[in-house]
Amino acid sequence: MATDTTPHTRTPHTRTLHPATRRSRAGVTSRVLVTALAAALAGTGLITPAVAATHTPAPSLRHGAQSVLDTGTVGVVVRSTGPHGSRTATAGLADKRTGRPAGPDDTFRIASSTKTFVSTVVLQLVGEGRLSLDDSVEDLLPGVVSGNGNDGRRITVRNLLNHTSGLFDFTEDFPVLTDIDAFREGHLASWTEDQLVGIAMKHAPRFAPGEGWSYSNTNYVLAGMIIEKTTGKSWQHEVTRRIIRPLGLHRTTAPYTDPFMKGSHLKGYSNFAAEGRTPIDVSVMNPSAAGAAGGMISNTADLSTFYAALMKGRLLKPAQLAAMRMTVRAEELDPAWPGARYGLGLLSVPLSCGGSYYSHGGDLFGYTTRNGFSADGRHVVVVAATGDGDEDTTPAANAVIDEQLCADGGR
């Protein structure tokens, strides 16, 4: 059953590492795509379900959480923030072994939702005059993108952030993220950014830079490397210093190689699309296998705070926020998000009630994250689910987001 936990209303938001075009359980090789209220919510904690019952219930949110659970997922957390304040509904289990129910504050692996954090830091550096979106990858990372037709001289920072580089997605040739036996053997191994990019360089590009659109996790591994080259510090350090700490995202981390999730969290389960195989607990894994493309951990409350702050201009200067919102058509995403467009670490999705919303979900075996937020940051919806689910999981999560945003007045 779904549980609703509603704080006091404030008066005035593969399985793979990317957004999803088809839902397969083949780890990162399935083209599953992806998706501030820090001050407004300061001091507003979630209350217990028993107390929440005395406040305005949110039946649509409870129904939404249950609808995602009914697609075969294990645990679900849905958070909606808007004029009504913030409400959270949960359904299913956080831990199948212990039977612990999913909790509203539980953390989870956010997979490609990491990309919006990374893009934000890159754009901050642009705003500081330390980078340009038109800088070439070769100028910033000499010799890293080369061979088999790959040419870093022709790829810009902008091409990386909006997936128009044409570079091969390393996750499509990375068994530890796509095969259950390879995961069992290698889930604790550490990987360097050079190794991940090296996998992609073994393959020819899909198209010439700027001549098409194709989601590639390689782009954001390179973006993380550019952050380090520019600042002298890792992308994890900069995301923590520039975003996590200033916004008080206490349940959000950008780990290096630590495979364990700390505190109360949702355990992920997957069989990696291996027919006849029982799903295994995939919660423990070395995040360096995903890196800047998808290695972060957070919860629905922290993600809501981040998206609201981003859209309200608290993290980027106006010119850089405008650049982030400049989108290109992304036909590859149409099966999951008809009419979708992609900006610099942001997806733009049409709303059924008119207008559109921004988003960047994430998929990693055993974990699904979907989200949607208005351009002004006043309305944010985040959906987290664990387990493999089925082909209806993404549509169900997207329907929850659309319903909640439209109920709050759309964009």
Structure write-up:
The chain crosses the membrane at residues 32-52. It comes from Streptomyces griseoaurantiacus. The chain is of the alpha+beta class. The protein has one domain (2-407): Beta-lactamase. It contains 13 helices and 17 strands. Strands 1, 2, 3, 4, 15, 16 and 17 form a 7-stranded antiparallel β-sheet that branches. It starts with a strand and ends with a helix.
Secondary structure layout plus pairing:
Elements: E1 2-5, H1 37-40, H2 49-52, H3 59-69, E2 75-82, E3 85-95, E4 100-101, E5 108-109, H4 114-127, H5 137-140, E6 146-147, E7 150-151, H6 157-161, H7 180-186, H8 193-201, H9 217-231, H10 235-247, E8 269-270, E9 280-281, E10 297-298, H11 300-311, H12 318-325, E11 328-329, E12 341-342, E13 347-350, E14 356-359, E15 362-364, E16 367-373, E17 380-386, H13 393-407
Antiparallel strand pairs: 1-3, 2-3, 2-17, 3-4, 5-10, 6-7, 8-9, 11-12, 12-13, 13-14, 15-16, 16-17
Helix pairs in contact: 3-13, 4-9, 4-12, 8-9
The gist of it:
This protein has 411 residues and is α+β, with helices and mostly antiparallel strands. It has helices spanning 37-40, 49-52, 59-69, 114-127, 137-140, 157-161, 180-186, 193-201, 217-231, 235-247, 300-311, 318-325, 393-407, and strands spanning 2-5, 75-82, 85-95, 100-101, 108-109, 146-147, 150-151, 269-270, 280-281, 297-298, 328-329, 341-342, 347-350, 356-359, 362-364, 367-373, 380-386.
